[in-house]
Amino acid sequence: MKETETIIEMITRFTDIVNVLEALGKTYKEFEKVMKILRSLPSKWHTKITTIQEAKDLTKLPMEELIGSLMTHEINLTKKLQEGGDKKKKSITLKATTKEEEDVEEEKPSDEDDDLALIIRKLNKYMRGERFRGRKFTS
């Protein structure tokens, strides 16, 4: 299987080759076809190949079931690659927003200082009122 080739393309090419060989008199058993397909898969499929070999009886595994399993795995691989690309894009976006947030946070201390000063003035004014004259706070 070529790296850029999909499972359907590989199976189509494989079927064409097998059909030509059968026309020339060479026939393959279902088991032989299954094994040839599994051997032709690239290394990123190694875990799926191992799973199929351990979970299924390859002598009785129909080609249709193998193809369905491989197509499902291919779809999952494609989704993972797309999600991985999206995560990279998201992290770049987050880095950009982080810098903007840092700029905003630098401006906030002056606003917070103004708010705190206002609260302190109001508290002092309230404390100067008649209700608190002569009272001392104990902590």
TrEMBL record:
Pfam families membership: Retrotran_gag_2
Disordered: region residues: 82-112
Ranges of Acidic residues composition bias in the record: 100-112
Protein name: UBN2 domain-containing protein
Lineage: Eukaryota, Viridiplantae, Streptophyta, Embryophyta, Tracheophyta
